[in-house]
Amino acid sequence: MWFQQDGAKCHTARETIQLLHQSFPGRVISRFGDQNWPPRSCDLTPLDFFLWGFLKSMVYANKPTTTQALKEEIGRCINEIPQHLCKKVIENFIKRSRVCQQSRGVHLHDILFHT
Question: What GO MF annotations does this protein's record show (predicted)?
Fold first, then answer.
């Protein structure tokens, strides 16, 4: 298992990096990690390119009005994400990764990925 984060200052404090190296020896993707965080890679994970936006649209469809209602709605929505959709997202992520690798990291113009 690898640990990956974007290199934000609060995530790269010396103590934090030491703990990550102890917990994930040789498998930290981060600024000051074993592998550098790739530049301009905000969509590197399925969570970034799919889940957060998808979950937000589901959660706020019911317009929760309290913090407790928001927490409950988040839990309910996460539990309702179909397993086949998660599988499709992972397949799409692998496809994106291969296309990026084949293009040697150049900008991908007009490529549409479907979930």
Answer: nucleic acid binding
